[in-house]
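Is this the right way to post structure tokens for a design question? Let me know if I should format differently. Anyway, here goes:
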């Protein structure tokens, strides 16, 4: 393996490339793009739509087309993708086009019971790699995506199955998985899901929050269970998401 950190990708389902790109000016550019929708950095009252709904990323569909963000797709990321997907991997939409913006919600942070899914059914060889780029500091409980670390290795026993079917199989296999989707006491969820985790078929699984620092890129497995999280910090989460695909033979 030419990039030693990628061992973590295979074992845990994700790996962080620290300082993979220069984030200078990117958070500011995000605020500028948002200002077109009446959102002002110094006025949290503007961080929600008038209906009171949280900010919707669909407002920003063309956002990542801007050259400001071209630097996210650099050599460090390319080398890791070559190692994971082989030479000639391709971009889904040629640029990092999907912003993930979550403003603070002011609730008690918890592990959500809903929204858990895989991005693609388990398959071998690995068909795609999902990626997050961090444009601002995403601290604990700051809206970083939640994953079930290690779950891609268990899901691999069910090739071709979609999220719901894999979820049902894993729930039958081990009660720890049922704790994720069934509402229980908050303190218990944090203890059992994040602190304790479980060992299932020899794989250590636990819920992990993908926090990050500007310039980080997280590469993650498409058959890792994951869900959007709550942001109970005092600032927004600014990330970009992207997908790289193995070239068809
Ligand atoms: O908003 C999030 O953190 C969830 C992102 C997600 O589910 C995805 O990119 O597939």
């Amino acid at each position: 393996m030419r990039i030693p950190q990628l061992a973590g990708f295979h074992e845990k389902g994700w790996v962080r490339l620290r300082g993979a790109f220069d984030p200078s000016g990117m958070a500011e550019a995000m605020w500028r793009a948002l200002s077109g929708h009446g959102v002002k950095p110094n006025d949290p009252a503007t961080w929600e739509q008038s209906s009171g709904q949280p900010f919707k990323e669909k407002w920003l569909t063309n956002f990542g087309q801007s050259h400001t963000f071209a630097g996210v797709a650099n050599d460090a990321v390319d080398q890791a993708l070559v190692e994971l997907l082989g030479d000639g991997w391709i971009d889904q939409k040629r640029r990092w086009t999907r912003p993930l913006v979550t403003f603070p919600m002011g609730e008690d942070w918890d592990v959500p019971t809903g929204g858990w899914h895989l991005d693609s059914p388990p398959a071998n060889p690995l068909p795609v790699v999902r990626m997050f780029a961090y444009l601002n500091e995403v601290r604990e409980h700051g809206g970083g995506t939640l994953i079930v670390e290690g779950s891609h290795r268990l899901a691999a026993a069910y090739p071709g199955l979609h999220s719901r079917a894999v979820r049902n199989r894993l729930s039958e296999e081990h009660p720890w998985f049922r704790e994720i989707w069934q509402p229980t006491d908050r303190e218990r969820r944090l203890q059992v899901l994040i602190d304790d985790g479980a060992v299932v078929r020899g794989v250590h699984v636990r819920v992990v929050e993908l926090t990050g620092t500007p310039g980080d890129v997280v590469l993650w497995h498409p058959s890792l269970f994951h869900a959007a999280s709550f942001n109970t910090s005092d600032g927004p989460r600014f990330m970009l998401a992207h997908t790289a695909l193995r070239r068809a033979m």
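Format looks fine. Someone answered above. Worth noting: Residues 100, 119, 145, 226, 228, 241 surround 2-oxoglutaric acid (CB under 6 Å). The chain is about 25% helix and 20% strand.
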